[in-house]
Design brief:
This protein is an alpha+beta fold. It is 43% helix and 19% strand. The protein has a six-stranded antiparallel sheet, covered by helices on one side. It has a four-stranded antiparallel sheet with strand order 3-8-5-6, with no helix packed on it.
């Protein structure tokens, strides 16, 4: 099962769970304009990255997330894509509708939850004090969400009780992680940061994997594995995403010709640029440029 989206009031699969606003498994294979506008979030949303690299805005913070990262978006916070688009990848998402949640940290989940009132208040307080929406390399979230997905799909005896227990497990695990997150920040590889900076500054260069690897002093195999572990993409696919991202910016903010944009972002011809751009976005560059901004 690669893609599904269940929503409160529309999907019978979650009708038995009034505290669930949505549960989805979203596979994004093409970059579509205006597909992820920044808007106010409803409920407590938890998103887990299975594949890909995503650039989002959460509560006016710009974040970049990678496979095995989880993102927390609290009620009334702004959430959306930095460029208001879904990047290519695969994510799991659940949105919980607590009975009460305040900015001061008061949390009441509802009768469905087995978490004590005192522990709910503690979880709420941790949420209110949390200023970092990303739980980095936190695989537990993905494991629990996959179990919830299996319970929804199988619909076996006791699935309602099991799902409620799993949501409790998810919230407890996240609260524990938040309490020690400051000491568990991801140690981003200086190697990855270096090559990312060099590529962004020299998109017009006809890069090869071998050349990238030489710059950072690694063999091609080790370099490829390192880039994929941090970005979710092979080096060349990562480079293509950087080029398309810059092309999108130029198309929307400048009047530079399509040919010049193609050459400036490293495509060897206008046709190559157009073909690659359409493959990833579903639009030709010219059509994309004419799409009016979303009001």
């Amino acid at each position: 099962m690669s893609h599904f989206s269940l929503h409160k009031g529309k999907s019978p699969e979650i009708q038995a769970f009034p505290h669930l606003i949505e549960f989805s498994r979203k596979k994004i294979q093409q970059v579509l304009p205006n597909s992820m506008p920044v808007k106010e979030n409803q409920g407590l949303r938890i998103v887990f990255i299975l594949e890909g690299k995503f650039e989002w805005i959460v509560d006016n913070q710009s974040i970049t997330v990678y496979p095995n990262d989880a993102v927390l978006v609290f009620p009334k916070q702004k959430f959306g894509g930095v460029k208001e688009i879904w990047d290519v990848g695969l994510v799991l998402s659940i949105t919980i509708n607590p009975r009460f949640f305040s900015e001061e940290g008061e949390l009441i989940l509802g009768d469905w939850s087995g978490i004590s009132d005192a522990e709910q208040r503690l979880i709420g307080k941790l949420c209110s004090l949390n200023t970092k929406p990303v739980l980095q390399n936190f695989k537990l979230v993905g494991e629990v969400l996959l179990k919830i997905q299996n319970e929804i799909v199988s619909n076996e005896l006791g699935f309602k009780t099991r799902i409620n227990h799993l949501v409790d497990e998810l919230l407890i695990g996240i609260a524990r992680q938040m309490s020690k997150q400051d000491n568990q920040r991801r140690d981003f590889s200086q190697t990855f940061q270096k090559i990312d900076h060099i590529l962004r500054e020299n998109l017009a260069h006809p890069w090869t994997v071998e050349e990238m690897a030489v710059i950072v002093g690694l063999g091609t195999t080790a370099f490829t594995e390192k880039v994929k572990s941090y970005s979710g993409f092979s080096p060349l696919n990562y480079l293509i995403n950087l080029r398309i991202s810059e092309a999108i910016r130029l198309l929307k903010t400048t009047k530079i010709s399509l040919t010049d944009i193609a050459l400036d972002t490293g495509f060897y011809s206008s046709q190559h640029f157009s073909t690659t751009f359409k493959k990833l976005t579903g639009y030709t560059p010219g059509h994309f440029r004419r799409i009016p901004p979303q009001p």
